[in-house]
């Protein structure tokens, strides 16, 4: 969990730093890159909302079916109903979960932006490495 948070922060910081370098050297290209990035973030947000709705609906359906299964098990005459509910639960649990949406599905930085991100990453790696060396 901490690695995912640290990775997300590093990516955001690298994108911001690369964006700054991009803006310094190519004023018009940065506006286009920022626009592409914003559209990709909107698409990602919409896809995440849809994903969360589907996950919530699936959990609610499973909870409802399990509650009905418990009620059916209390009554011997409801054995057929219980078996049908078990079949439906198995159908739901055997279907594959949707893939979690990711920014990389919607946005690919331009080659120039990737170069600036790499340069910024090398600079920051040197700074962090140098700081670590001085501290140790």
Oligomer: single chain
Provide a count of the helices. Answer: 4
The structural class is mainly alpha
Provide the helix percentage: over 70%
Number of domains: 1
**In one word, what is the shape?**
elongated
**Biggest pleated-sheet summary:** none
Low-confidence stretches: none
What is the terminal-to-terminal distance? 27 Å
Please tell me the overall pLDDT.
80
The sequence of SSEs as H and E is: HHHH
Tell me what the structure shows.
This protein has 136 residues and is mostly helical. It contains 4 helices and no strands. Helix content is 82%, strand content 0%. The model has no long low-confidence stretch (mean pLDDT 80). It has one domain.
Summarize the structure.
With 136 residues, the protein is an all-alpha fold. It is 82% helix and 0% strand.
